[in-house]
Amino acid sequence: MSKHILFFGFGYCAQYVAPLLAAQGWHMSATCRDEEKAARLQGLGITPLMLDGAPLSPAALDGVSHIVLSAAPGATGDPALPLLQPALQETAGQMKWLGYLSTTGVYGDHEGAWVDEDTPPGPLGERGQRRVAAEVAWGALAETLHLPIHYFRLAGIYGPGRNQFAALKAGTARRIDKAGQVFSRIHVEDIATILLASMAKPQAGRAYSVCDDDPAPPQDVVAYAATLLGMAPPPLIAFEDADLSPMAKSFYGENKRIKNSRIKQELGVTLKYPSYREGLRALFEAQDF
User: Fold this and answer.
1) Domain spanning 4-157+186-211+259-271, CATH architecture
2) What's the Cα-to-Cα distance from 103 to each of 70, 90, 157, rounded to whole Å?
3) CA 12, CA 271: separation in Å to the nearest integer?
4) What pLDDT tens digit does each residue of the chain (289 aa) get?
5) Torsions phi, psi of 2, nearest 5?
6) Residue 40's Cα: distance from chain center in Å?
């Protein structure tokens, strides 16, 4: 029997998951809100499912066995849950795997210490609070309906079209120096590999930190990308002098090193890009900026 996956929100990560599933013969559907996006999905061999603000009917989930949830929560909560809940109440028994794409923001600030999936959260910013609330809400529904949900806490995502090269070439890249600050990141191709590994070995209720092996200062990543381009790196700017937007400042308000042992030990994943160096070098060599 063929498998059928629904992408609730077909964004950057889904673009890299879909071709892998297509190669395995999966049927794929994805939500959208306009005809232009629907046409693009059809061009990729994906059945569009138009959203109009009303909850989906059980018929919309006919045959669906897997769901990727990637819509970010807003001030009023997770946008997918109220649209899916009525249909899931009727179709929960056919679900084999649900993947909620969360963020490492749920861990909060740990002043640079190492954390894993079982570490109690530190102080949370607004986005982290929303993500925790969304995870809790999905967990409550999963418990009620016996849904096999999995949580993927994604670090900073990079890959083709989303990396430091474009900003460097445009002259807008900045190297901001905050003492001791590190960020974790993950290449989008490795995200796709991890999601497929979980689909192959589902463990309902499990959470996974999705990041590479090398949490690093952001200014070092920019400098490495500049070196690959043969450019002088931008000058360092002290965090206090950087004049950052409130959102940018909020990123620097959390500092942690995230362990990724679980994706390796439980899912058997070997990262293609274990650090930003391998990832950026591959993008540079492919000129895939």
Assistant:
1) 3-Layer(aba) Sandwich (3.40)
2) 10, 29, 10
3) 19
4) 569 999 999 999 999 999 999 999 999 999 999 999 999 999 999 999 999 999 999 999 999 999 999 999 999 999 999 999 999 999 999 999 999 999 999 999 999 999 999 999 999 989 999 999 999 999 999 999 999 999 999 999 999 999 999 899 999 999 999 999 999 999 999 999 999 999 999 999 999 999 999 999 999 999 999 999 999 999 999 999 999 998 888 889 999 999 999 999 999 999 999 999 999 999 999 998 8
5) -70, 150
6) 22
Three-state DSSP class for residue 81: helix
Q: Which long-range contacts (CB under 8 A, 24 or more apart) does 245-253 make?
A: 250/125, 250/126, 250/127, 251/183, 252/176, 252/178, 252/181, 253/109, 253/125
Q: For residue 231, give both structure tokens.
A: 């450019």
CB of 80 within 8 A of CB of 69? yes
Dihedral of the alpha carbons of 235, 239, 243, 248, in degrees to the nearest 10 = 110
Q: What angle do CA 50, 52, 55 make, to 5 degrees?
A: 95
pTM of the model: 0.97
Q: Rounded CA gap, 75 and 263, in Å?
A: 31
Tokens 């923001």 locate to 105
